[in-house]
Specification:
351 residues; Rossmann fold; seven-stranded parallel sheet; binds nicotinamide-adenine-dinucleotide; binds uridine-diphosphate-N-acetylglucosamine
Amino acid sequence: MSTVLVTGGLGYIGSHIVIELGLAGMDVVILDNLANSAIDVFYRLKSMARKDIEFYQGDVRDSKILNVVLSEQSVSSVIHCAGLKAVGESSLKPVEYYQNNVAGSLVLIDAMREAGIQNLVFSSSATVYGIDAPVPYVETLPTGGTSNPYGTSKWMVEQILKDAANAAPKLSIASLRYFNPIGAHPSGLIGEDPQGIPNNLLPYIAQVAVGKRAELSVFGDDYPTADGTCERDYLHVVDLARGHVKALDWVKNNTGAEAFNLGTGKATSVLEIIQAFEEASGVKIPYSIAPRRPGDLPAFWADATKAEKLLGWNAELGLEEMMADTWRWQSQNPNGYRSNAKEAQPDSSVA
Ligand code: NAD
Ligand code: UD1
């Protein structure tokens, strides 16, 4: 029983986790409904993997498909990435967000209970600290006070998981609070492929760099930060994925529910990101200063000491790698997975 189920395993973060699990010698089964991903991701993962990968197309809210997966595969642990993640959209479609993120998690833990699976790693977010938390964010701070249904859904699931672990002493759950994951796999085969206009900074910059968008709008330069633009804790998605392998070790050897920040502990401004991207890519990014984006916080970053102490994890890759890998992915796949998918070949030195 050593197979890991990754829900949402064809998404941006899930696909990088699948690669790292394979490198750590684990078999993987993916459940994904393709709501925000493409089947080509699976073909690419298969071509890169050293271990077996199975894929089931299905919805995490569907207990029937979950029961099929858990009875056909020898699953011992679950990494739960499936969910909806667009903050702005969550205010327009709150019911869909609570259904996918909260109800989906409930159906999953119920199916795990029936199958006798005790180990769970959950994709949470730094957003659970709410809008008034002091920086750096540390796990001992109170959570809640979130400002949108997306953030509230992550907060709710964390509470549900804590209660579930209190009621079932064998359960072991790690909620990983991601800061700002960016970058792509160094092979250039796997990366972030947002549908429509990107909401997040790095995908937008990358699309400006390949000429798909004319210029970047920098949302506000009058924040109380060193250069006036917002600061975030950007971390490489491969570091983040490695954090899941460490968290899996932790859940296998502990019980109860714990939350862990996964961030670098460093804050970087929007203007610093533009400069770092230009240096890594050699491409000039035209930008103009636009009004603040409603809901943005001036600056937040992680205190990642707990993950270092308990998981033995810290971020190893710097801004340079984050930018170079984003650029490699975007320049080799200007239209994401919709272009040249079948011709893609793995780079065997990194996969
Ligand atoms: P993503 O959209 O790329 O991946 C999510 C995957 O889940 C997609 O492949 C999608 O098709 C699938 N999915 C969605 N709803 C599903 C459902 N009901 N059943 C089955 N599959 C479903 O997003 P991501 O960036 O890879 O994020 C993964 C997880 O991490 C999400 O839970 C997200 O909320 C969380 N997270 C992401 C970030 C970030 O910056 N990307 C930050 C904090 C937390
Ligand atoms: C956003 C979400 C957060 C989520 C995270 C990762 C909001 C308010 N928060 O975080 O809950 O966990 O994405 O998915 O949406 N920026 C620009 N121009 C752009 C895009 C962004 O200047 O075109 C700036 C933003 O103002 C921000 C920084 O870049 O200061 C990072 O933005 P983004 O990548 O969207 O991440 P967050 O806002 O931190």
